[in-house]
Every structure is written in C-alpha cells, then in structure tokens.
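Chain A, query sequence.
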Amino acid sequence: MPERNVVPWSAMISGYSQNDDCEDALKLFLEMQQAGVKPNESTLSSVLSACAGLAALEAGKQVHTYIIKKGLESDVFVGSALVDMYAKSGSMDCANAAFTTSPERNVVSWNSMIAGYAQNGQVEDALEIFCKMPERNLVSWNAMIAAYSQNERSQKALDLFSQMQLEGWLPDQCTFTSVLSACANIAAMEQGKQAHAKIIEQRLVSDVFMGSALVDMYAKCGSIEDARHVFDKMPVRNVVSWTVMILGYALHGHGKTALLLFNEMQQAGMKPNHITFVGVLSGCSHAGLVDDGWHYFSSMNRDYCLTPTEEHYTCMVDLLCRAGRLDDAENFINKMPFEPDSVVWLSLLSACKIYVNVELGQRAAQRLFELEAENPSTYVMLSNIYAAAGRWEDVAKVREMMKERQIKKRPGCSWMEVKGEVHAFLVGDNLHPKREEIYEMLDTLTMKMKEAGYVPDTDNVLHDVEEELKERILSHHSEKLAIAFGLISTPLGTPIRIIKNLRVCGDCHIAIKFISKIVERQIVVRDASRFHHFKDGFCSCGDYW
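Chain A, predicted structure.
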C-alpha cells in the first residue's frame, strides 16, 4: 500500500491476534508506532488480546500506561480487553482494579473475571462475579462450569450444568467438554451417559475434540469397553484421540493392549507426542513390562526426536519401583538430567513401603522433607514403613513430628454414583442415611467371606493394637462401605463402580475378590493410580499394583 492509515494497521494486527499469531501482532504494533501512526481503540484492544495470548504482563502494562496517557480507558472494548489481559496473565489484583474502575462493563469483562479467577483457583471469587452479573450469556455459564470442573468441584459443575439447562440455555462443545471432564473426575458415568445422549441429539458427536472427551470420560469412569466403542466410531481421529485411548488402557492396566494401539497409531500415519509416551510408559509400568518400558523410553529421542521430560522419567521410576527394583530406581534418579521433584521421591518412598525397605525409605523421606516439608504423605508413608518393620518407637517419633508441625493425615475416602447422585464414605463412616443397612450388609459379607476362606490381612493395620481391633478397623474401610452401599442400592447383576482417593489397601484388595465371587457381580475400583476390575474372585491387575 502506498499509504497506510490506522485502519489497515489495525486490521492486520487484529488478524494476527485472532489467529493466535500474537508475537507477530506485537511486532507489527511496534512497526506501526515507528511509522508514526497513532493507534485507536480498536488497535489497542487487539494488542491487549495479543498480550493476553502470550501472558505478556509487562508488555500489557506498557500498553495500559499508553491508554491512560491518551485517556482511552473509558472505552468499553478497551476496558474489557484490559481485564482479559490481566486475568490471562495471572494478575487478578490488576484485573480486578481495571474491572472495578471501568465506567462501563460489558459481558466480556464479566466473563474474563470469572475465567481469570478460575485459572488462579479462586472459585469462590469466580462464583461471586457470576452471581452479580446483570446479564449472562452462554460463555458466562461455560466459564463458571469450567471453573468448578478445573478446581475439583465436579459435582458443583454438574449441578450448575443442570441449572443452566433449566434456565433454557443450550450447551455447546465448550460446555460438554467441561461437563465430561467433571463426570470423569468423580466417575459419574450415568451423568456422563446423559451428556453423551445430548451430544448425539445436538449432532456434535462427530467433532474430534468431543469424541476424544467422551473416550476420556468413559475410560476414567471405569468402562474401557465404552471408551473403545466411541473411539472406533470416531470418523476422524487426531493425536489427542489416540493418546487418550492409550492412556485409558494404561489406567486400566492393559499395558499390552496400549502398546498394540500405539503401533496401530503409527501405522495410521499419526505421529506420537510427549503425552502419548506418558501413556505408553504408564501402560508398561502398570503391567510390569520393564523391558518394553526401557525400549520405548530409549526410542523417544532416537526414533521420534522427542526429549524425555520429567514426567517420562517419573514413569520410568514408577516402572522400576513397581517391579521391586528399588536400587535400580534410586540409581536412575541419581542420574536424571534434572533435579528430581517430589513426585519422583514419593514414588520411591511408596515402593519402600510395599517392599519394606527401611534404609532407602529414610533416604527418600529426607529428600521429601527438604522439598515439601508440609506434605502429609511423606510422614504417613515413612510411619507405615517403620510400622511394617515393627519399629514402633520410630512410628511414635514420626507421629510426634507430625503433631509438632501440625501436619494432618489425608483421610481415605471412597465414593460411588447411584441414580445421578454421588455418595461419599470415610473409614468407619456413620453419617450416611442408610448406615444401618450398610453395616448389616457388611456384616453379612464378612461372615460369608470367612466361610469361603477369607482371613483378614491385619498386617495392613499399621497400629500397635490387638488383632480383634485390627480386624474391626479393616472391616470398616471406606471402599468396603461404598461396595456395601452399592449392593443395597443397585439392581442385581449390574456392575458396582467406586473411586478411592488413595491406593487400595492389600486387605481390601483380597476382600473385594471374595465379594465379587460371593455376590456374582463385577466390581470396578479406581484408586489413586489405576483401575481394578474384580470378577469371579479375580482382579484384572493380577495382584500386580
């Protein structure tokens, strides 16, 4: 163009910004200034959007300073762009200041505040903004549902989704993505199926991102068969689709199937990414495929030009630890190309608990105390290692240390969904409305299990108490309460699906195998690391977990 005024400059900057080419948008803005062309409100809104896309807080502040000097902050679009920039850059104090001082606010600025608070984990602040909104659009509802879903308030997300529909709003892909994620988080498969039906009804099921979200939901809700069915029906698959299916198989302990699917993925011409290899290595870990794990870990750089990240190294440590090769795991950690984080040391410490390796456990715990002195898991696992070794004086010392440092143990919790409602149980729980029926069922099961040969594994009670009390403690573990509730609340023959926030204990694992045979029902348990499918007295993990 022989002569450019603010309009073509603004159009080009806006084009770059809207197509996620934010760096070029900012470069062009600098060229515009060097050419002596003054930006207008439209230009500045696009520049702020580019800053938001890059989370370029300092650049955004410089633009804000220019806006103030030129007296343009009263423009509603500039004001909402400022709020959005600060929120996406993680500076909620500045976002709030821009929001509250803006003479006019539109729905975009309100939505930006909700999304910003959600991104920073400030769910209550996001809810306060949502409730104060003079008017809401679909983006507002999506932002608040996502805020709940992304911050471990999954049931709240599902409740708000129901409210949104009652008020006449039609969900879109963004809504369903958050809803399916919430269902996956708490294994709310019935609600996930209802969302799936709505997706089909709205003809969104052919969308590749929607299909991938459905695969992920079914896998995390315990139905790897439904996940594979959705996967096979997808008209188009991308790397995310293949990866979530591989991750699903890994989570369910089907390591060999995960590797077969990985080979199919390559035959289909799809190039794996870093997350794909997390699934592959996790699959090897849960199935005890040590040699395969080493092969695929080595192939990342050699065959795919992918540099292993901390997450891949963590998978390898987990692989070695589960296989009982603790010395190899420690040597591997010491040779890592970066400083190992707490997740790595926790994996080693957990293995030391399983294999009762006191000396190595002490070394791992010491590193964890240096990294995360406030993490209760370290104290609990070290105490359990000492208890398993019969070192009760050391157990008492660890517990005294916890008391002095005001460290509280994370309670074990199990939950299951019945008729769209999630029921949660703690160890020895007496708060459920059906507690009498639950404990009556549990007593009946315990009697039948003992008749079938079950002997409580009291070694899993890491307290210096009498055997009778140990048995009572074991019989009231949260997963057993959840299963008993499932048996009295669901039709005969239907699977029972529960989640536990911690690793399922050895005694519960034995007991659930007996229960599955006695009641002739499949019981699916998702613990902190994987799925266990119990049927006819056996578990899919083959007692390797």
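The mean pLDDT is 91. The beta strands are 413-418, 421-426, 496-500, 523-526, 531-535, 538-539.
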